[in-house]
Amino acid sequence: MNTKQALRKKMRQRLNSQGQSERRKKSRAIQRSLFGNKEFQASKCVMLYVSKGTGEVETGPIIKKALKMGKKVALPVTMVGEKRIKPVCVKDLKKGLKKGPYGIYEPKGSKSRKGVRIKDIDLVIVPGLAFDKHNNRLGHGRGYYDSFLKRLREDIPKVGLGFRFQLLKKIPTTGSDFSLTRVITN
Description:
Low-confidence stretches: none
């Protein structure tokens, strides 16, 4: 097993072993930090992800607050055949989510919907299993986010959310990995 695979396995175990109340408490503190972030406050179109069932920082309250603030919210839809993610606008989480490929939740009926134009996105909140002090990110290993992030303008903030134990001194990277603007932890 290579170093990245071993680290992914270890981080998934840590995420899954964290109690729900502890995850919720830490998530609220991370959410507050994000809400106070000037890039979040100034954004008009934010791309988020659905954390449901992943053990990662809870993003439901972030999505709801962004919508309540009048922001356009895009969620990723996995296009397996094209090996890419497509940002799709969501207006209400109550309309329902469904498990997409790899068990990641996405809006129902999103495959046929027109995507949000990448040039309209002005903030991206990125999932990850681990991050390091140089804003590198260890994802789930399929490369969808790295490919997506490379398509964005360089000046678009890319923010990772993670628990303190997910922030490591250094994670293994390759030339195809993409660093973030910042990582918010607690």
